[in-house]
Write a structure and sequence with these properties.
single chain; binds guanosine-5'-monophosphate; disordered N terminus; Rossmann fold; about 190 residues; six-stranded mixed sheet; four-stranded antiparallel sheet; alpha/beta
């Protein structure tokens, strides 16, 4: 039983619903990169108390791991948007599932995203939050697909890993709501 559990954590391949995936980024690499991102945030926001806004669902693990490495005072809250609706490519429709519950006027906001693909979701969210007059907005995304990005996002200051234009699951990211519990990030092979 113990062996089986370890095998699941470190496996190189994974089947999620009807698709097959292979390991792209191990959890060891993710952990190291998160420490580096948090070090940048600790330095950049020294003397301030930023609000980390996790964008659900995909960023729940990343937000949790990131906040543990931040050693300046920080608040955390969540908002929920959906743009993929269970497929493997963007529908370009964004659904607002739930809004922030705090007043962000005058606050330094760090949006925590799972992945930036076309960038449409992020543009939508940034425009929506800017109206509420925060002191600043930056974005920390675990993944970025530079070749899919349709326009520059000036606020995108912290990026974990740049990846090719391919569909990935794991570490919070889903396919048909499954695969979020995989420790590493896996890319679709068939
Ligand atoms: P964008 O608006 O930048 O095109 O898409 C952003 C959202 O699409 C992400 O927050 C995520 O929910 C979803 N997404 C984009 N690429 C992928 C991917 O490779 N895998 C998964 N699971 N979701 C993705």
């Amino acid at each position: 039983m113990h062996f089986k559990y370890n095998f699941y954590i470190y496996r190189m391949k994974a089947q999620v619903a009807d698709l097959n995936f292979e390991l792209l980024i191990s959890y060891d690499k993710i952990e190291k990169r998160i420490k580096a991102l948090a070090a940048l945030i600790n330095a950049d926001y020294k003397g301030r108390t930023p609000v980390l806004v996790g964008v659900l669902n995909g960023s729940f693990l990343f937000t949790a791991d990131l906040i543990k490495e931040i050693d300046i005072p920080v608040e955390v809250t969540f908002t929920k948007l959906a743009s993929y609706f269970g497929g493997i490519s963007s529908t370009r429709k964004i659904r607002d599932d739930f809004d922030l519950t705090i007043n962000i006027k005058g606050r330094d906001i760090i949006l925590v995203e799972d992945i930036v693909d076309t960038g449409n979701t992020l543009h939508y969210l940034i425009d929506k939050l800017k109206v509420r007059e925060p002191a600043s907005i930056t974005v920390c995304s675990m993944l970025l697909k530079p070749k899919a990005l349709e326009s520059t996002i000036n606020e995108l200051k912290y990026v974990g890993f740049e990846i090719e234009n391919e569909f990935v699951v794991g570490y919070g990211l889903d396919y048909k709501e499954l695969g979020r519990n995989l420790r590493g990030i896996y890319r679709k092979i068939s």
